[in-house]
């Protein structure tokens, strides 16, 4: 049984730190330390864990090896036409390898949303690698986030084995937690299909290309092309409105004009 709840106590925060190393393979200079996880909880962020435990034995949920996933967010403030507005930046989401492809990442995100809304926070953001097809599918298709900002080499050089030595390019996901778009995704309802102006393909083989010295230049060429295409689309005022997979497993970014009434929160919809 998987239980989703806020992490509690130093042992669970330390388990998050270890899972971070396990997931990304960071060097010590890039890892988020336990103190920062603790600080995030104290200043209005989130450290939400997924625990494999017996529902009849709550004590088991506190064991180090019970943690199978976590999501870490930090608080921030946005300047809006109506004044300062709080939001959360979701900095990390990790799931242990044996528990992936079970929808656990989505469960952690939906719990982030529930907890944020319970405090009156109506927006979250996070960055993600545009070459990671599974992450893009989760963020854009399942959760209903949109993207309209490209951050080239956002983190600089990374020791993560997932980066494969490529620049740390990122898309900024914008998640309006109480919007009709996101509410429809949560309820698994279909919504009005947007007009798609352009489609940008991410090759299914991109992860394999990054992981091999023989093909890394090919991955870099693909990254440069996708960066150019997305930046040009954003310069035209388009946003990434969806993400799909073709029969070969290639990822497809779907871009068009963002309808503000679909992506704003329902209380402030015109």
- As laid out across the biggest beta sheet, the strand order is 1-2-3-4-5-7-6
List the uncertain runs. Answer: 55-62, 266-270
Mind summarizing the main beta sheet?
Answer: 7 strands, mixed
> Separation of termini?
43 Å
Note the beta-strand portion.
25-35%
Overall helicity: 25-40%
Mean pLDDT: 92
Cα shape: globular
Descriptive notes:
The protein is an alpha+beta fold. It has two domains: 1-121, Gcn5-related N-acetyltransferase (GNAT) (Aminopeptidase); 127-270, no CATH class. 32% of the residues lie in helices and 28% in strands. It is built from eight helices and ten strands. It has helices spanning 9-24, 34-42, 104-118, 133-142, 180-186, 206-210, 216-235, 260-263; strands at residues 2-6, 46-52, 67-80, 83-95, 123-128, 146-151, 170-176, 198-202, 239-245, 251-256. A seven-stranded mixed β-sheet has the order 1-2-3-4-5-7-6. It has a three-stranded antiparallel β-sheet with strand order 8-10-9. Helix 3 (104-118) links the parallel strand 4 (83-95) and strand 5. The protein starts with a strand and ends in a 7-residue tail after the last helix. The model is unreliable at 55-62 and 266-270 (pLDDT under 50).
